Amino acid sequence: VRMQEKVAGKTTGSPDGDLGIRPADPLPDNMDERELGDRLFALVDWARRHGINADDALSLANRRFAELHSR
Q: What is the secondary structure of 4-51 as a DSSP string?
């Protein structure tokens, strides 16, 4: 079972969907794997609640990156 299916119905962040972070927020110098994991999990949860499949979005980004850098 995919993690997105396991957490369906559960949310992170505030009830209005605010993750508490913004894309332009600077990352702390002391960020570790746990903090990064928490932020990634929150982002995937946000995407799911907005009808975006995070796996598909990442695959698309990987393909675009590969195409851009294979020229």
A: HHHTTT---S-TTS--S--TTSPPPTT--HHHHHHHHHHHHHHHHHTT
CB 42 within 8 A of CB 21: yes
DSSP 53: -
Rg (CA), the chain: 14
Q: What is the pLDDT of residues 23-51, one digit of tens each?
A: 566 767 787 888 888 888 999 999 999 99
Taking the complete model, does pTM exceed 0.70, yes or no?
A: no
Q: What amino acid is encoded at 41 in this protein?
A: F
Q: How far is the C-alpha of 15 from the C-alpha of 34, rounded, in Å?
A: 23
